[in-house]
Write a structure and sequence with these properties.
The protein contains 13 helices and twelve strands. By secondary structure, the chain is an alpha/beta fold. Pfam families: Aminotran_1_2.
């Protein structure tokens, strides 16, 4: 007996991009200390008051089946948050609560694409994007962005691939590049979506981590609310990665259909986790700023470390918890550099090639360790790149 082609083909026959990460974890398991700058996991845990609310809700009995679209109060809170921050009229009927942002991405593609439909996404991309599209039964088609444009997508490139496609997936602030899409970029994307009748799936899980410019939700642009699905999550904004709670915001008819999907797949999110998420959202923007503050601080540290050396250059770090570093001056691929850095100094970073081909010759650095350790690791990375450059 064989597994279905849909499930066995999720990776598309290639690597999942996690080879360096897996090697680092093997080293740790055998007792070798490794400085991990790989995944977007906060170096703080979920705040105690949020966990206490989760505990209170569980003890109070909210452990049975919860409302499948999401607890009404949480749906209202998400809707209010979105409306206040974007200016787009939003009610609870535009919101479905999901088991994390990843589940929301899958649901959004199920909602917009039939089997075999072409679903567009941008390179560099978060590692799960193409597999999510394949898992939903659609055919992924990647559109490259360019380092010389600071990885801002070109509307002309999207338009060149848009004929016959059903959806386009974007992510701003962006993982892996740290770039925040400009208004001009988003206006161009919106124009292509309107002209080519594309659904836009907007992954906005880093919307609270903006260091330069502003986060603009494309749902707020002219004519886009009816064709945009926004993916949100508590993972990055509230350091609740393990709680697995997110949402989809979109037109009411799509949300109604997504509720049917949830009824036949996830059957909702545990009620006590939803209660904790509601409590967390009600802590407001000041709390979200506290969660984001270490990454803003470390981004400033990175600017100081990278100044005055020429082996490594920084893609504009405008948002999210990552730096994208150009190491092409070493003559190495991003993957070769990452493996060599791990071997020589036990520092683990993600190769740009883990996120597609557009960031080849780059590495992604997660700003997810304590400040002084982060500064020391980044200095070592730069010195190592300089030595490789001298040897090239």
């Amino acid at each position: 007996m064989q597994a279905s082609q849909r499930i066995s083909g999720i990776l598309g026959g290639g690597s999942d991009g996690w080879d360096v990460f897996n090697k680092a974890r093997e080293m740790i398991d055998t007792g070798t200390p490794v400085t991990e700058l790989t995944i977007g996991e906060h170096d703080i845990r979920t705040a105690a008051p949020i966990l206490q609310e989760m505990h209170r809700a569980a003890l109070a009995g909210h452990t049975g089946y919860a409302s499948i679209p999401g607890v009404a109060a949480l749906r209202r809170e998400v809707a209010q948050r979105v409306q206040e921050r974007t200016g787009v009229p939003t009610t609870s009927e535009n919101v479905m609560i999901t088991p994390g942002g990843q589940s929301a991405l899958f649901a959004a593609h199920i909602a917009t694409c039939d089997a075999g439909d072409t679903a567009l996404y941008l390179d560099p991309f978060y590692a799960t994007y193409p597999g999510t599209i394949r898992g939903a039964g659609a055919t992924p088609l990647c559109i490259q962005t360019h380092a010389e444009d600071a990885f801002q997508p070109r509307a002309s490139d999207i338009a060149a691939h848009a004929k016959g496609a059903k959806s386009l997936l974007i992510n701003t602030p962006n993982n892996p590049t740290g770039v925040v899409y400009s208004r001009a970029t988003l206006d161009g994307i919106a124009q292509v979506c309107r002209e080519e009748d594309l659904w836009l799936i907007s992954d906005e899980v880093y919307d609270t981590q903006v260091w330069e410019g502003e986060h603009i939700s494309p749902r707020a642009l002219d004519g886009m609310a009816e064709r945009t699905l926004v993916v949100g999550s508590m993972s990055k904004s509230h350091a609740m990665t393990g709680s697995r709670i997110g949402w989809v915001v979109g037109p009411r008819d799509i949300i109604d259909n997504l509720i049917n999907l949830a009824t036949h797949t996830t059957y909702g999110v545990p009620g006590f986790i939803q209660d904790a998420a509601l409590f967390a959202l009600q802590l407001g923007e000041e709390f979200e700023a506290e969660i984001a503050a270490p990454f803003r601080r470390r981004r400033d540290i990175a600017h100081k470390v990278l100044a005055g050396q020429n082996a490594v250059s920084l893609v504009p770090a405008q948002g999210a918890m990552y730096l994208m570093l150009d190491v092409r001056s070493t003559g190495m691929t991003g993957e070769d550099f990452a493996f060599a850095l791990l071997e020589a100094h036990q520092i683990a970073v993600m190769p740009g090639e883990s996120f597609g081909t557009a960031a080849a010759g780059h590495v992604r650095v997660a700003m997810t360790i304590e400040d002084s350790a982060f500064e020391a690791a980044l200095k070592t990375l730069c010195s190592f790149a300089q030595s490789c450059q001298n040897d090239a």
